[in-house]
Specification:
heterodimer, A: mainly alpha, MetI-like fold, globular, B: about 290 residues, alpha/beta, Rossmann fold, 4-stranded antiparallel β-sheet, 10 strands
């Protein structure tokens, strides 16, 4: 339920960011005021229902209430309940490091096996087998290996991201349109020129798609890692609040995660807009 | 056995026509295919397929030569051989007098699909071969501007291929090939996917470009009328494995009017002869 709300909200932020920033090009109309208003009305309606249900139809400790969550968030953000900013910092570090590591490793190995067919034949079954493991199941093991600090969370996050990026870059190389490569070869292009003019632009499509899909995966990895064992982080905040039945703090943590995800997705969307300019209408 | 097959074929077709013994490099020749055999595939699971068998013909320097034949007869493969993208299993291809070894620098290849780079604008697509050749920037600008004008893409220089119609993409692709002025032009059914009107306009444009600056052209098509309208000489290839069925000089005088060529008497009579030959290749069927 919470993830649904999260993706929905981030999609909305992306949509409004794109339609707001670029002068709406011909052929694509911006969303009308009606749509925006309706979205707000529905959002307000859900919040209102939630507030209404809290304590009346469902016990307060289960679902808290929007007003309670807002108050808790305010206390946390203003520092009267200490620790939130440090938690955010820790989670963001784990997220960024794990994501970056997974993206880089995935691309490198994907390109390597994409070009080295014999290697792909040898390693692909192994990679598929490891990919078959739910990465979350490895989290406890990583805690034993890398300790309770950020390293174990970085490891879980990068592991999940790695496979997404690996498959995307590998398929990107394997499905490289040979005709385009040949056109350049006939023109007398060097290997370097072909990589610059064909391979990289061609592969940027699946890579960016992978980078976009990886953000939530990285977040799941980090948060699960923090749930299992941590001393800091937003996941730790949520987990410890749960154990105290402090549902307003749980929801506050979830809201923080949602906002972090939106920022992450927005950054990737900006990169994508820049790199894939040629694809846009 | 291969030899024998090619001798049989040689007896009923005018192979070469220059009177010079095949196998000797000839400096004033644009292209020479000398006893080309080509086999495809051949793995543990699949039998190798013979695509070409003893194909021999010459294209003179600055001659416009069309290749016609049923689909799957290896017409396009001939272009890959001439460009050096593929090596024959037997025989030798000569370009401008020397045997082809690997990719050649002085060849332009217009493929069946436009094959423009989707991430480059029209302008940058046409500029690409100049960049590859290290042409000075000022000269690049001048050439790109000239060719954008010649193929009528002014006003679209900043468009991406996706935003162009099929005909415009084709024109961009042709400009991209001619901009570096290759001495030999290979074209693989370049207008096959276009509607009749656009096709005629493109043929007209190609002919006027060629009249202005004649080059050796090898033009693959499955359209006899197109071949007759454009070419000096037509090479008819049989169904697979492709052999040269005949080499037919076209007697329609130049300059030709693309839009009305088919009304000429010569056109009709040659079309009939070629069509009979062509139809017998198609209906001879039987093998796959």
């Amino acid at each position: 339920m919470t993830t649904d709300a999260g993706t929905d909200a981030s999609a909305r932020v992306l949509a409004s960011a794109t339609s707001g920033e670029a002068p709406s090009p011909k052929g694509r109309k911006g969303l009308g005021w009606g749509t925006h208003t309706l979205r707000l009305v529905i959002f307000a309606l859900i919040l209102g229902l939630w507030q209404l249900a809290s304590g009346r139809w469902l016990p307060d400790y289960m679902i808290s209430s929007p007003s309670e969550v807002a108050k808790t968030l305010w206390d946390l953000a203003s520092g009267s309940t200490p620790g939130l900013w440090k938690d955010i910092q820790v989670t963001a570090e784990e997220l960024i490091l794990g994501y970056a590591l997974g993206v880089v490793a995935g691309i490198v190995v994907g390109l390597l096996l994409g070009y080295w067919r014999a290697g792909a034949a040898i390693f692909n079954p192994l990679i598929s087998a490891i990919n078959g493991i739910p990465k979350i199941a490895l989290a406890p093991l990583f805690l034993i290996w890398f300790g309770i600090g950020i390293e174990s969370k970085v490891a879980v996050a990068s592991m999940t991201v790695f496979f997404v990026m690996f498959y995307n870059s590998y398929m990107g190389v394997v499905t490289m349109p040979q005709d385009l490569v040949n056109v350049l070869r006939v023109m007398g292009a060097s290997r370097f020129m072909i990589i610059r003019k064909v391979t990289l632009p061609q592969i940027s499509v699946p890579l960016l798609a992978g980078m976009k899909a990886s953000v939530p995966f990285a977040m799941i990895g980090v948060i699960v890692g923090e749930f299992i064992a941590a001393q800091q982080g937003v996941g730790y905040l949520i987990d410890s609040a749960t154990q105290n039945f402090a549902s307003s703090a749980v929801f506050a943590g979830i809201v923080v995660l949602m906002i972090m995800m939106m920022i992450g997705m927005l950054l990737i969307a900006l990169i994508e807009r820049r790199v894939l300019r040629w694809q846009r209408d | 056995m291969q030899r024998r097959a090619s001798f049989e074929q040689a007896s009923d077709a005018e192979v070469g026509g220059t009177g010079q013994p095949l196998g000797q490099p000839v400096p004033d020749l644009g292209l020479r295919f000398d006893q080309i055999d080509l086999w495809f595939g051949g793995s543990k699971r699949r039998e190798p397929v013979q695509a070409l068998s003893g194909v021999s013909f010459d294209v003179a320097d600055r001659e416009f030569c069309a290749i016609v034949g049923p689909s799957g007869c290896g017409k396009s493969t001939l272009l890959n051989l001439a460009s050096g993208l593929r090596e024959p299993s037997g025989g030798e291809v000569y370009v401008n007098g020397s045997p082809v070894r690997g990719l050649l620098k002085d060849i332009g290849y217009v493929t069946q699909d436009s094959n423009l780079l989707p991430w480059l604008t029209v302008e940058d697509n046409i500029r690409l071969p100049l960049q590859i050749r290290g042409v000075p920037a000022a000269e690049q600008d001048a050439l790109v501007e000239r060719w954008v004008g010649l193929v009528g893409l002014d006003g679209f220089t900043r468009s991406y291929p996706r935003q162009l119609s099929g005909g415009m993409q084709k024109r961009c692709s042709i400009a991209r090939t001619l901009v570096y002025d290759p001495s030999i032009l290979l074209m693989d059914e370049p207008f096959g996917a276009l509607d009749a009107m656009t096709k005629a306009i493109m043929q007209d444009a190609l002919l006027s470009l060629w009249n202005e600056r004649p080059k050796t052209v090898l033009f693959v098509t499955h359209d006899l009328s197109e071949a007759l309208t454009l070419a000096d000489k037509i090479v008819v290839i049989t169904r697979r494995p492709g052999r040269v069925r005949a080499v037919v000089p076209v007697d329609i005088p130049r300059p030709r009017d693309v839009f009305h060529a088919s009304e000429l008497k010569e056109f009709a009579s040659q079309h009939r002869v070629l069509w009979d030959m062509f139809a017998s290749e198609i209906s001879a069927g039987g093998s796959r």
